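Review box. Two proteins, two foldings.
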Amino acid sequence: MNNFIDRFKKDFELYIGSVFLTITSVIVIMNVFTRYFLNFTFSWTEEVAVGAFVWVIFLGFANAYKNKSVIGVEVLVKLLPARGRLMLEAISSLIVVLLSSSMFYLSYKYVMNSTKITVALEVSYIYIQISIVISFALITLYSIYFAYESFKKFITGEVAGDKEDKQW
């Protein structure tokens, strides 16, 4: 049980996202079955499936950034010396801090001012859109950590070479 809790702490975005992906898959399969075999559809299925899928996307994006799995320009980075790579990593982390914190702020303002409700369920879109706020909050926290670690390595002269830092 402790092993599962440790894995959940490490990649909680993936576990929560997999619950939403399961919900999306079950609802879509159920809707296809009812449409083609029973000749009716539920009016709420599309709203729930799309809302759950939005959660999957944004939680997956936060986890991909945390695990440094986002596509980058690796060829140009490999041309730099090790200390240059650390400095470039630190600067790019600072840029991500600025961008993600801006997106966090703007998405928070947007969500809190949202008055839209879904058509079939008449539920506020806030429950779907809050995934954007949470995602950018996590990315901001992760990028602050990455920037700190990169600057610390650069200042202390610690050069890891080609090894990536995946301490999360």
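Next protein.
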Amino acid sequence: MKVGVALSFAIIFGAIGDILMSTGMRRSGEVTVTSLRDIPSFLADTFTNPCVLAGVLSMALYFAAYITALAWVDVSVANPLTALSYVIASTYAFAYLREKIGWERAAGIMLITVGALFVGLSS
């Protein structure tokens, strides 16, 4: 039960973090770093973006939930199951961010889901 809760939080916070960081970076516009002098302004723009900051916080919560799960379950179980966050993030990206998902990407998402199910059933 504890493992399921920790892994569920890890999956959800991982997906939310990816979505927020993607949204924040899209709102920032094109990244142009042509010299070392451009890096400080790029970092300042990136890490003052509210969506990026919320994404970083969400990823910190993901890591907290993930390492908590590792206290109770093998990494060979926890790691593949957290890949379900990719499924959630991709579904959101398709439905709300209007990203195009071709058959190859959709097949990969289905393989991730099936693989996570096999790992989950094996533990």
